[in-house]
Amino acid sequence: MNRALRRGTVLVLLCLLLFRWGCGSMFRMPGKSHDGPLPQATAAQQHLAGQLQRDVASLADGIGQRNIWHSARYHRAAELIAARFEDLGYGVSRQPFRAHDQLCLNVIADRCGSDRRDEIVILGAHYDSLHGTVGANDNASGVAAILAIAAAAKDLRPRRSLRLIAFANEEPPFFQTELMGSLVYARQCKLRNEHIVAMVALDGLGCYSDQQGSQRYPFPVRWFLPSTANFIAFVGNTRSAPLVQQCIGSFRDHAQFPSEGGAVPPIVTGAGWSDHWAFWQVGYQAVLVTDTLPFRFAQYHTSADTPARIDYHRMARVVEGLTAMLVDLVNHAG
């Protein structure tokens, strides 16, 4: 091998190593993910699993498809969520907008902060389902989680203001368009110059597996994360890296459950596939918490996405950890 070829080979290898190191830094997160068998479920976790199962069934089985093609059911879902928030003592409002000549509603529950009320933390999940599906994991699971967190935090007196939001129109054909409910809401926040310090979207919280090879990834994520789909993921863009780290660090402090995180460029496939994307568009830090949906859940966007597919016991552990994480966010001392 001549000198020029050797130098070229070394340069290519160095570039590959730098690329891998740079990508790897996107996935280095604080704390340590839980490893090994899960502890025996507590009585509180067992109770929570039952409540999550009932709420998912109420949306997916009791109401069914939730979209503009089933407008009566869509509005029924919105009012069910609003009523639950009201029963828990939250201030509730609705943001109406129209899509394809149909009325759509974002449902917002508010809890005003104390000494840092101008700083706003949002926890959101879309309640619509893809046309032709009842959307149990995508995303009745996220809504059920928000309702459970709302109940657990009902007596909380946060330092920062808290908003719990059920968004309309996340699914196609509105996904990442002007009529996506979360984008309608995020733009209104920006127009009002609201100081949103954290937005966390919940989308798909119920699918887990201990089988090797059950987790798939887009390039280049597969180089850095495990191939077993037993974890919950925290995903943000590079601008949201501090929030991703704060969220997963807090979750790991409180939950004995596997977790992985990444702050990646939005061009990475799947990075912006939920309501957090809308808040990125107007400059807010936002994070998605997800089981990764299409990268492990074979029933994603099919009629087989039913309540029976969800692992409620593992989901309960995740929701318990997210509740503690949210309390940390709204009472953050920084």
Overview of this protein structure:
It is a single chain. By secondary structure, the chain is an alpha/beta fold. It has a single domain (51-330), classed as Aminopeptidase (3-Layer(aba) Sandwich), CATH 3.40.630.10. It is built from eight helices and eight strands. The chain has helices spanning 3-25, 43-63, 71-87, 136-152, 181-191, 241-254, 276-281, 312-330; strands at 91-99, 102-111, 116-126, 160-167, 195-202, 232-237, 259-264, 286-290. An eight-stranded mixed beta sheet has the order 1-2-4-3-5-8-6-7, with helices on both faces. Helix 6 links the parallel strand 6 (232-237) and strand 7 (259-264). Helix 2 (43-63) crosses helix 4 (136-152) and helix 6 crosses helix 8 (312-330). It is globular. It starts with a helix and ends with a helix. The model is unreliable at 8-22 (pLDDT under 50).
